[in-house]
Each structure stands twice: as C-alpha cells, then as structure tokens.
Write a structure and sequence with these properties.
single chain; 84 residues; mainly alpha; two-stranded antiparallel sheet; 2 strands; 5% strand
Length: 84
C-alpha cells in the first residue's frame, strides 16, 4: 500500500489574495470617474458655455469616453482576466 492515498494530518492553507500595487492602481482607475463626477457644484454653473452648450453637459459627456479609458486601464492592470 502506498501512503499517498492517506489523508493529510493538517488541513490545506487558505488561499491568500495578495494586495499588490497593481490591484490598488486598478481600484484607483475605477474610482477616478466616480469621484470626478461627484463635484457637481464645480461644473454645474449656468454662466460657462462651450459652443452654446452649458459646461455641465460637456463635462459629463467627456467622462463617457474618459471612463472607458480608465476601465481599460484597470482591466489591463489586473492582467486582462478575472483572478479567483
């Protein structure tokens, strides 16, 4: 009989998720657009216009592609796939 089929004496170690700098950088990339849009009083003034449209609309519309850029950066920082 071989001993390899015997149960181990100790339970396996739990899987530890490392907290690397890339993970924090990805979290920051996801938080930047959220935080940037929270300052509504800063960009919601009625006196600033660009091409006849209030800055409020330009600013929010500019964050649509900006958010995509930050999400792609977070995706690439995480290695391009989900890690479990």
């Amino acid at each position: 009989m071989s001993e390899s089929s015997a149960a181990p004496d100790h339970p396996p170690d739990p899987i530890q998720v490392p907290r690397s700098g890339r993970r924090w950088a990805a979290a920051v990339c996801l938080a930047v657009p959220v935080v940037a849009l929270l300052g509504v009083p800063w960009y919601a003034g009625t006196d600033v216009h660009l091409a006849g449209v209030r800055l409020f609309y330009w600013y929010q519309f500019a964050w649509v592609p900006g958010s995509v850029v930050f999400m792609v950066a977070a995706y690439l920082l995480r290695g391009g796939r989900d890690r479990e």
